[in-house]
Amino acid sequence: MDRGRAGPDTATAADIPSLDRLLNTPEFAPLLAQFGHAQVVATLRRHLDGLRQSAIAGDLSSTRLAVAALAQTTSESLASSTQSRLRPVFNLTGTVLHTNFGRALLPDAAVAAVTRAMLAPVNLEFDLDARRRGDRDDIVEDLLRELTGAEAATVVNNNAAAVLLLLNTLAARGEVIVSRGELIEIGDSFRIPDIMRRAGARLVEVGTTNRTHAADYAEAIGRRTALLMKVHTSNYAISGFTASVGIAELSALARAHSLPLAVDLGSGTLIDMKRWGLPKEPTVREAIGAGADVVTFSGDKLLGGPQAGLIVGRADLVRKLKRNPLKRALRVGKLTLAALEAVLGLYRAPEFLGERLTTLRLLLRPADAMRAQAGRLLPVLQGALGKACSVAAAPMTSQIGSGTLPVDTLPSHGFVIRANQGRGRLARLDAMLRGLPVPVTGRIADNALWLDLRCLEERDEAAFAALWKTLHT
Ligand SMILES: *Cc1c(COP(=O)(O)O)cnc(C)c1O
């Protein structure tokens, strides 16, 4: 062997142990036990091929060929390639209900209910009293009736599905009258006119963007009208010279023409948020009380539950929705119903909701809590960032998110990080934070990275601080 030329530690391809021999060593036994034969072989083979390339290039150190070193490298590759693609992150964007981060976090009661439903058979569609087939909506229907005052309820995959089912059932081949001020687009590709078309209904727009009157609806009602619809303009606000028609007035008009009135509330809270000093958002009970025949809303926005679309309203209309074959395609599974039942149950004791419902707890965190947290964490961030960036604790504003109350913001506190030189440095820091074992995501604005501490609860603070100690800028 020609070791002299490249140094005493240089190995050749012939020194690389065989795959079969390595697989039989005690070092590889735990890897085989954890990851299985096929994954270990594929990973190890790739690694040995790489070593062979290094040997040919003359830069293979013999220390890399020790069995323990080979097992270690293989183990690291396997750990990274088998890591879940769905990972916990620190959401420091300041948006509490962030669609990109999965919206509402479920309360402990819901997590326990989901776990139970995953591990054992459940009476999802089995009436235990009557010993016959049941209806999965029964799991939550009584609770929804109690909490909204509606006669009946059904649940589908999300609110977009709820609107689709509603339009397809009540207005296929008919006309639906909607105000021009309410033809919204929500996030990614949910546009009322598109859903309408897919549902087989024809949209009749009335009024103007900023003003719509009852007479506009009345004039548009004709032989083909199937439904009047009101959509909560959740993700934007029109201010200034505006007019819209309230549910009570629309309901009277609908009744006079024997037409149903549907209201898409979007977030649709079950309880008046003003109770906690949060901005007013219309409740489902108010919509039903004002005369809406069907109301749709999301499970994972302000409600604080799992992704779901909730439909409540008149019993005869809900019965029709349930008979539509589309309902079968849009229905939810047992895990969703388990979580939803637990979350709805929390609403029966509203005085504890601010602690027990995670979403509400985050929304209610006072700016002082985040200010104190920023004070505790500032030295940690300063230590981790070194000279490259400067960090300051600063007041900022959080948002509820998911199109809820877009204009109202919540006073908060956090960090503003600025690069000391060059714009590229800030982008690099942002990428490094996203690359941490638990990625940290903030908001980039005004040449700074903003980290809002609202969604970092005290119980996660130590883990967050430890994470910064692993950062190497
Ligand atoms: C969010 C929203 C929807 C869509 O609800 P998903 O649960 O995200 O499907 C529909 N309508 C309104 C008014 C909304 O705010």
- Give the percentage of residues in beta strands: 15-25%
Mean pLDDT: 93
Query: What is the count of distinct domains?
Result: 3
What is CATH's topology name of the largest domain? Aspartate Aminotransferase, domain 2
Strand order of the largest sheet: 5-13-12-11-10-6-9
Poorly predicted residue ranges: none
Instruction: Using the alpha-carbon principal axes, give the shape.
Output: globular
Number of strands: 18
Bound molecules: pyridoxal-5'-phosphate
Mind telling me the CATH superfamily name of the largest domain? Type I PLP-dependent aspartate aminotransferase-like (Major domain)
Radius of gyration: 29 Å
Question: How much helix is in the residues?
Answer: 40-55%
CATH architecture of the largest domain: 3-Layer(aba) Sandwich
The largest sheet, given as strand count, sense and whether it forms a barrel, is: 7 strands, mixed
Output the number of helix runs. 20
Class per helix and strand makeup: alpha/beta
Distance between the termini: 43 Å
Give the CATH class of the largest domain.
Alpha Beta
Summarize, please.
The chain is α/β, with parallel strands linked by helices and 473 residues long. The protein has helices at residues 3-6, 19-23, 29-35, 37-57, 67-81, 108-119, 138-148, 159-171, 192-198, 214-220, 247-256, 284-289, 315-323, 325-330, 334-346, 350-356, 358-364, 367-385, 423-434, 461-469; strands spanning 90-91, 95-97, 126-127, 132-133, 152-156, 175-179, 185-186, 190-191, 202-206, 225-231, 261-266, 294-298, 309-313, 389-401, 404-419, 440-441, 443-445, 448-452.
